[in-house]
Specification:
The structure holds two protein chains of two kinds. By secondary structure, chain A is α+β, with helices and mostly antiparallel strands. Chain A contains 13 helices and 20 strands. In chain A, a hairpin with a 4-residue loop joins strand 10 and strand 11. In chain A, 50% of the residues are buried. Chain B has a single domain, classed as Alpha-Beta Plaits. Classes of the chains: A alpha+beta, B alpha+beta.
Chain lengths: 462, 103
């Protein structure tokens, strides 16, 4: 924690918007200027099931593998500058992740100089039958169906933990926190609670930290990346600066980035991120509180600096969200490109031929979806109504099928290539070969009584 | 004129629902959005592209509206066969809507 402009400030840098985000970002965040914490979010909804699959093959796996080489690059800097890390890189195996980081720290000569906090208790897979037997139905939040409908196909089940177990790890001296399914927002809120000793019922403050977390949880998406307004004038995206929260004890904070980096932080761009993946803005529900996004006041406080104030919150609910992944079926997507003249008409004709052949084979699918990329794939009928489609230089036919069974999907993948020689003319773009049937692992959101989940924090000394 | 001249937008997903956050380019445009970009109009705009209802929420503090387009993503996430399975560009599709600044 530092003092800047006459007040206590904690600086939390967002280093990773998702697993697969820019590898350079966390390095630049810890070297580009002063920060106190590096926050890294790795877990998307379906990531947990992929990690579960890896763990079932090898009990030493099941976490975000990229985290270890990243720590190899960052640890010398983190130790020297006393920067602490909050992450959910632990996936479904936080202990194994912590052991890997501890072994690395030893190898780099930081033995005795690094404490790793391990947050578990989110994993419900082994407890699922017990919970169902005790009447916790884990009904799907979207469809209302009870989990028992797909119980035999469940691959992973995790409750979303909030900031408090991460706070516990920080209080016990953890330099690097490796959590399982902790919310993205909790990873940012936790350092603020820890730095300012916020109380568990300080709802406005917890809501402020939650809003800060939402703002930086998608990395550069609040600092110029994927920003629609004035997108052509956003400078130097090649060197885009990832966001930094500069928070004060009163719940006000500013979002900024390191000097000399690209991108832009202004009210318009930050607002785009605030409404991203938004439900009811007055009720942004996390395990820690309910944040009211209709109370946020934004002001431009300087170049690349937006100030947040006025944020109100309400008490947390008595449930936790649970993310279940289950096996759904198979899908495949095939593509071919048709060229001028009559590109769109040729692609449409090929689609009709293909569908007729699928029907003649008696193949049954849950869904068959055709899109014409370059014409209507993203904006559908709205695009067809507004632009002339009879003179397009090329159109990609993109056709996808989905089924509970593999056989019809497999057969479908063999019906694309023949069209090159036995369908409409001027066709190309098939160098990628035959499409492959893909397993669908689907997401099942549910709620669970908070009392059924007991977060656990352990400290591993490297 | 098109909504594109009065607002910018970003969209994302929650399961089979796409959300579109619509933000006035100038504060004085916000009342125009509130009056003309109603849930009913957005439902008609996306006819054939979504198979559920549209909900609208107001964020006057941010001069923004948030729309939830239910049944927009062919099942959503990994199930969806759509190019835009995560609903990322429903945002600009909404900006095609015709509005009248003089109204």
């Amino acid at each position: 924690m530092t003092r800047s402009r006459g007040r206590q400030t904690v600086r939390i840098a967002g280093g990773q918007g998702f697993w697969g985000d820019w590898l350079e970002a966390p390095y630049r965040q810890v070297t580009g200027g002063p920060v106190d914490y590096l926050m890294m979010d790795y877990l998307a909804e379906v990531t947990m099931s992929i990690l579960q699959k890896q763990k079932s093959r090898d009990s030493s796996l099941g976490f975000a593998k990229d985290f270890v080489p990243l720590m190899e690059r960052l640890l010398p800097i983190l130790v020297e500058r006393h920067i602490r890390v909050t992450s959910n890189a632990g996936g479904v195996n936080p202990r194994a992740c912590a052991q890997a980081v501890a072994a690395l720290a030893h190898r780099l000569g930081f033995g005795g100089k690094l404490r790793i906090g391990v947050v578990t208790g989110d994993d419900l897979l082994a407890r699922l039958d017990g919970l169902l037997a005790r009447g916790h139905e884990l009904r799907n939040l979207d469809t209302g169906r009870p989990l028992s409908d797909v119980r035999d196909r469940v691959l992973s089940a995790n409750a979303y933990l909030g900031a408090w177990p991460v706070v516990d790890a920080l209080r016990r001296g953890a330099d690097v926190v490796v959590a399982g399914r902790v919310t993205d927002t909790g990873l940012t809120l936790a350092p603020m609670i820890h730095a300012f000793d916020w109380r568990p019922d300080a709802w406005d403050l917890l809501a402020a930290g939650t809003v800060a977390g939402h703002t930086i949880e998608c990395g550069a998406q609040c600092s110029g990346g994927n920003c629609l307004k004035d997108w052509q004038t956003i400078p130097d995206l090649a060197n885009v600066g990832y966001p930094i929260v500069e928070a004060g004890p009163d719940g006000t904070f500013e979002i900024t980035k390191h000097p000399g980096t690209g991108g832009r932080i202004d009210v318009a761009g930050v607002t785009e991120q605030l409404v991203y993946e938004m439900g009811n803005p007055a009720e942004y529900i996390t395990p820690d509180c309910i944040a009211d996004f209709t109370t946020i006041r934004l002001t431009q406080a300087g170049k690349d600096r937006v100030r947040f104030s006025g944020i109100k919150g309400r008490p947390a609910t008595d449930t936790l969200k649970v993310s279940v992944a289950y096996f759904y079926g198979y899908k495949a997507v095939g593509t071919l490109v048709y060229a001028w003249p009559d590109a769109y008409k040729k692609a449409q004709a090929a689609d009709r031929v293909l569908r007729q052949r699928l029907a003649a084979l008696g193949l049954k699918f849950e869904a068959v979806l055709t899109e014409f990329v370059g014409a209507d794939a993203t904006h559908g009928a709205l695009a067809r109504a507004s632009a002339p489609l009879d003179d397009l230089p090329e159109v990609q036919l993109r056709i996808g099928v989905r089924s509970p069974d593999k056989a019809p999907v497999e057969r479908f993948t063999r019906e694309i290539a023949p069209l090159i020689l036995n369908g409409p003319p001027s066709v190309t773009g098939f160098a990628g070969g035959r499409p492959k049937p893909e397993e669908i692992v689907a997401y099942w959101p549910a709620l669970l009584d908070k009392r059924m989940v007991e977060p656990c924090v352990e400290i591993v000394d490297a | 004129m098109r909504l594109l001249e009065l607002a910018h937008a970003r969209s994302g997903d929650k399961g089979d629902t796409a959300n579109v956050g619509l933000i006035a380019l100038k504060p004085e445009y916000y009342p125009v959005l509130v009056k003309q970009v109603t849930a009913a109009r957005v439902t008609r705009h996306f006819k054939g592209m979504i198979n559920g209802p549209v909900e609208r929420y107001e964020l006057p503090n941010l001069h923004a509206l948030n729309f939830l387009l239910h049944g927009a993503l062919d099942g959503g996430g990994t199930i969806s066969l759509k190019t835009d399975a995560q609903g990322k560009v429903f945002s600009t599709a909404l900006l095609r809507l015709e509005v009248d600044l003089a109204k």
